[in-house]
Amino acid sequence: MSEEEQPRWSDVLKRRLANSNKDARSEEEIKAEETELFTKYYTEWKGGGGNNKPFSNIPRFYYKLPAEDEVLLQKLREESRAVFLQRKSRELLDNEELQSLWFLLDKHQVPPLSGEEAMISYESYLQVRDKAGPKCKNFFTARVYAKLLNNDPYGRISIMHFFNYVMRKVWLHQTRIGLSLYDVAGQGYLRESDLENYILELIPTLPQLDGLEKSFYSFYVCTAVRKFFFFLDPLRTGKIKIQDILACSFLDDLLELRDEELSKESQESNWFSAPSALRVYGQYLNLDKDHNGMLSKEELSRYGTATLTTVFLDRVFQECLTYDGEMDYKTYLDFVLALENRKEPAALQYIFKLLDIEEQGYLNVFSLNYFFRAIQEQIKLHGQEPVSFQDVKDEIFDMVKPKDPYKITLQDLVNSCQGDTVTSILIDLNGFWTYENREVLVANDNDSIGAADLIDS
C-alpha cells in the first residue's frame, strides 16, 4: 500500500469516535485503545517506528582503550600503531628523493636571478609537481606558493625557500613519528618517563654530548626533561602533547647538538648543551655543603649572588615539593628555570604563585609591602638609607598598568612586559639595586662605549 493510500491516524480516530455509541466496551477500554492508536500513528509519522532510528547511520567514533589485564588487546593495539607509524614513515621523502627534487627545481628555474637566489614561476612549479612523484604532491599547492611569494616583480618564488619549506615539513613529520614511538599510551602525548627514554636514546646521536660520562646521563636527562615540562606543562599534569613539543623551539635546540662545529657561545646559551648541564649540576653540588644530595633553605640562600630575600626563600620552601624540608635536584631545576627566564610567562607564573601569599589570584599593596620589607631590611644591613615603599609601590603600578588600579594579576604582569623587573625588585636585593641605579648603569655603559671608540680611533 502506498503512503497516500494509508489511512491517516486522525481519520481512524474520527471513525472510532463515531462508532463509540455502538460500542459495548467500557469507557476506560475505549480510551486505552485511542491512546495506543495515537501513539502508534504519531511514532510512525515522526519516523521513529521499527528500526528506522535517526542515529542508526552514525559511525562509531569512540573505542575504549584495552584494560591492563587485556594483554592480547594491548599487544594488538601496539602492533597496529607500529605498523601505522611505519607506513607513515615510508610516505616521507628520503634523502635520494629530496636530492632528485632539488635537481628538478634547479632545472626548472626561471631567470633572472633575484640577487643570488634562483627563482621559479608558478607554471614551472606545476611542471615540477607533475614530474616529482606522488610523495611530493602535497607540497605543490597554490597556498604554499602564495605563502612563499615575497615581492618578486615577476611573481616568482625562491627555489631555496621552497626547498627549505619541504625539508622542514619532512623533518617535522619524521620527528613526530619518532616521538610517537615513545607514546606508550598512544594518546598523542608523552609522560615524563616517555620523554626521558626518548632523550636517553638520543644522546649517542648527538656529537656535542660525546664527552659526557655515562654516570652523568641520568642527571643530564633530568636536566633536559625539566625544561620541556616546566614550560610546556604549566598545570603540572605530568604529560605534554607531542604537537606542543614540535611547536616550541626546545627540540631544535636539543637537535642543534648534532652540529660538530657548534660555537662555544651557542653551547653556553643552549640549556641542553653539555657545558650548560654541567654548570647547573655543578652549582647544585656547590650549594650542597653537607653533601646529602639535597638543599636546605640556608644552602639555597647562597644561590646566584646570594641576595635573594629570606621571605622569598621561605615561600619557595612552603609552596614547592620538598623532602623533610629540603629540596631535591628536580625541584631545584624548576627554581633555576624560573629565575633565569623571568620574562617568560611560565616563569612568571611560578614566581607569581610564591608572591600571592593570600592565594587570591592577584597582588595588592599588602603583598607588595610584605616582600619589599625584606628588601628594606637588607638595605639597612648594608648601611644604606632605606627606600620608601610608597615610591616603589607607585613605580610598580605605573610599570604594570593593571586593569584594576589596586590589584596586579598574573596576566597584568605578562601583558606589561615588565614582569621580570617587578619580580626582581621584590625578591632580590641585587635586582632591586640594578633597577634603582639603572640610569647610572646606562650612563656608565655609554661612557665605556665612548672610551672604547676613542681608543679604537
UniProtKB/TrEMBL annotation:
GO terms for biological process: B cell homeostasis; cortical cytoskeleton organization; microtubule cytoskeleton organization; positive regulation of B cell differentiation; regulation of dephosphorylation; T cell homeostasis. The keyword Ion transport does not apply. One of its GO terms (molecular function) is metal ion binding. Transmembrane segments: none annotated. GO terms for cellular component: centrosome; cytoplasm; nucleus; spindle. The keyword DNA-binding does not apply. It is found in: Cytoplasm; Nucleus. It holds the Pfam family EF-hand_13. Keywords: Calcium, Cytoplasm, Metal-binding, Nucleus, Repeat. Residues 184-260 form the PP2A regulatory subunit B'' EF-hand domain. It comes from the Eukaryota. CDD domains: PPP2R3C (cd21505). This is Serine/threonine-protein phosphatase 2A regulatory subunit B'' subunit gamma. It comes from Takifugu rubripes.
